[in-house]
Amino acid sequence: LDDALHRIIATLANKNEELQNFIETLNHTLGRVQVNSTQVVSDLEEEFDTLYSILDEMKESMTNNIKQETVRKSHELQNQLTQSTSALESAEELLEFANNAVTMAPAFRLTLKPKATDNMTHLMVDFSQERQLLQGLKFLPVPGAPEIVLGDCLVIDNEVTVAWRMPVEDSKIDHYILEYRKTKHEGLPRVKDEQRWEVVDDIKSTEHTLQGLRFDTRFMNFRVRACNKAAAGDYSDPVTLETRAFNFGFDSTSSHLNLKVEDRSVEWDPQGGKGVDSKVKGKENKGRSGTPSPKRTSVTRSPAPRGARDRFTGESYTVLGDTSVESGQHYWEVKPQKDCKSYSVGLAYRNLGKFDQLGKTSTSWCIHINNWLQNSFAAKHNNKAKNLDVPVPDSVGVYCDFDRGQLSFYNAENKQLLHTFKVKFTQPVVPAFMVWCGGLTLSTGLQIPSAVRSFQKTENGLGGSNSSILVNLI
């Protein structure tokens, strides 16, 4: 009865959360309708104002043409009128002085046809077609909303391929816009999600692959819209895809004081911790002021947070990860600085002693690279080392299958297997790192690469007697 009641309560809680999210979505959509409506009206007024402006410019230009034609015709007719008047005066003088030798040449040379007519119809316009076009003016044709095809979407190797289709074929679609964002929530996107939408524009096909992603949240939301030459259509119904990966950082509370730790990097610092935990020896200054000498002031390290382990010390230049592995399969990568003299990468139980070095105890497993004096590349566990006859990679991939008790190291670039430990873990483990005279950069939020997953599947499918051929054991 209690189990049934708990299930009912859980179902009601989930339904309540869904309804709250739906109400927020409706309120958000309602608000956006008002905002978008105001914007569309403003855009429409702007378009009509532009059209009015063009018509006014055309009216002014055509009016000027009519005025110029009027001036031209008036000028030509006025010249003809002047010439005709002069010829008429010559003819009258001939009649009055018939015996005088007055030439009639100007009168006979005159043309009696006007050089310009009074017709102005060639400057008239017919707006019947334009009027018909304006009367047929409609809102822009908008493409329909695409449909994302979940069965064709793929999440692999920190890449996400999103595929979609149009419910009705539309030959006028020019391109698509894909939007995505990371989220911690499963199901429909939250209106008040903490992440903003990222935009990929001008996609010509009906699928797109996002590459080089870091999966630092468990889910991602996706939506897509179609665009023609005129406008963008509605968004598709959003979908949520799972992007599970192992995320962790360095636990700075565990690090050796000679290590400078940030969230994703650790670097050797020979000056680190100087003066910390030093104690003032000798008597206090007995001067008149009674104030201790500045040279004898002690610096005390602040106490570690409650429940935290002791820092590594001595020659154990170690730092642990801040997240335990208790089950499942996980993968991360580590890249050393080019001039790093010595470093180790592996796993350890959290109770690793503060003086213990990685690989020298029964509670830690690692590969160790030494570039100081004598170069070496070895796998270490329980104070035993196995030299690895492979090139030292520029970056190391670490694969842990807790349930199968398997810890493997790979060349992160070409996914070549470097070494595998077979372990029966008796308690949760944490990523562990050692660095001296150099630094390491950590990459998390990575899925298990398909090449590694395929290799592990093949290896685990072999019989027990044959598996030792591929797996290097210490």
Automatic annotation (TrEMBL):
- What protein am I looking at? Fibronectin type III and SPRY domain containing 1-like
Keyword Ribosomal protein in record: no
Q: What sections of the sequence does the record tag as coiled-coil? A: 9-101
Q: Where is the COS domain?
A: 79-140
Matching entries from InterPro entries are given as: B30.2/SPRY, B30.2/SPRY_sf, Bbox_C, Butyrophylin_SPRY, ConA-like_dom_sf, COS_domain, E3_ligase_FN3/SPRY, FN3_dom
Q: Indicate yes or no for the key word Thylakoid.
A: no
Q: Which organism is it from?
A: Cyprinus carpio
SMART domains listed in its UniProt record: BBC, SPRY
UniProt keyword list: Coiled coil
